[in-house]
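Deliverable D2.4 — example input (structure tokens):
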């Protein structure tokens, strides 16, 4: 799965918008783990990024391809940057919080019935 050029361009624009520079990012490739078989266990396709000024660390090994993981890791870095530095919650975080609230509500109701 190759990443489309327009998505890469949008990611670069978002980096510029938030003032994240490529030179401030430390990038390493490490061996992955999990499903994928021998190919994943032998190759260093998992991407580790660290934004040096803020200390935010991200690790992404969702796909088998290194380039795809590089793109996904950078997108994840921007999401974490928004949450931790700017206080902007992502859609994923909002959805998880909603689920946690629902579970708490259900738990309270079940205790009241007992």
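Example output (designed residues):
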């Amino acid at each position: 799965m190759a990443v489309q050029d327009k998505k890469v361009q949008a990611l670069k624009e978002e980096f510029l918008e938030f003032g994240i520079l490529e030179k401030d990012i430390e990038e390493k490739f490490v061996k992955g783990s999990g499903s994928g078989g021998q190919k994943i266990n032998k190759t260093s396709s998992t991407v580790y990024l660290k934004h040096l000024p803020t200390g935010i660390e991200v690790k992404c090994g969702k796909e088998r391809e290194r380039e795809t993981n590089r793109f996904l890791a950078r997108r994840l870095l921007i999401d974490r940057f928004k949450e931790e530095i700017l206080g902007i919650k992502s859609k994923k975080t909002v959805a998880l919080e909603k689920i946690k609230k629902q579970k708490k509500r259900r738990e309270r109701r079940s205790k009241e019935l007992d």
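The mean pLDDT is 89.
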